[in-house]
Amino acid sequence: MSLLPDFLVIGAFKAGTTSLHHYLDKHPRIFMTRLKEPNFFAHTKSDPNHDNRNIFPVTDLAQYERLFADARADQLKGEASPGYLPSKQAPRKIKEQIPDIRLLATLRDPVDRAYSHYLMELRNEQISLPPNEAFDAGGYWLEASNYARQLNRYLEHFRPDQIKVVLYEEMRSDADKVVHDILDWLGLPPLDTLNANEQHNRGGVPRSQFMHRALNIARTLPVTRMIPPGVRRRLAGLRDLNLAPAPELSPEESQRWRDYFAEDIERTAQLLDVDLSQWLS
Known about the structure:
43% of the residues lie in helices and 10% in strands. It has helices spanning 17-25, 61-66, 90-97, 110-123, 131-137, 140-143, 147-155, 168-173, 175-185, 209-220, 229-241, 251-272; strands spanning 7-11, 30-32, 76-80, 102-107, 163-167, 205-206, 243-244. Strands 2-3-1-4-5 form a five-stranded parallel beta sheet, sandwiched between helices. Helix 2 links the parallel strand 2 (30-32) and strand 3 (76-80). It is globular. The chain has 281 residues and is an alpha/beta fold. The protein has twelve helices and seven strands. The model has no long low-confidence stretch (mean pLDDT 88). Helix 7 (147-155) runs parallel beside helix 12 (251-272) and helix 10 packs antiparallel against helix 11.
């Protein structure tokens, strides 16, 4: 039995990939890796962070295959690494190793996604600028919302029927239906026990930056990635309790960001042949 995955959740960042990982993991015919975001196919030695095992915890094929060693023969194997969608080398590397793979992408309103990504970098002290100045400075957190170019890289290597795109907003409004459609696409029966009310990887701003920093350090220790899921959920619960709702982006700043993404929204809509007009207003 091959120890390579049957499908990948490829992103986008801050667009529900953690929730989707947990939803799919509930299905008895699906095996999701205990380690979320192995980022194996996004790893390259030219990346300045290539030695950072918090970003790239799995860097060789044998190590990657071991993530799926406990899968049963009747299970589809999958993993979720949102870093695959913006990665320039991941499509080619995936194609070389698993040419018949199925790829699942989740897309979110690009302004909402970018602001959520900005807030994550802000609370993790990777950025200190207010939103307007951060936007002017630009960065990975902003460009990750330009979906058309990212999707095109995958369409250069894979057939359209190998790629399924779901919208974060639809998953928020009716997760049962979205997951049912995904399972049908994977050729699996529906899941009767989906609890779509669960929240995963909540956003916000820390009430205590000291506590947030301490929990982040604990979460990024290499050993933490391999501890039982129940313990990791309790750590995540402590982190969530320390998060307060984030302030909303001002209407003026939101419109400025929306104008910036407008062309890519239209290109993405044409590429997918879907109506994304709700992202333009």
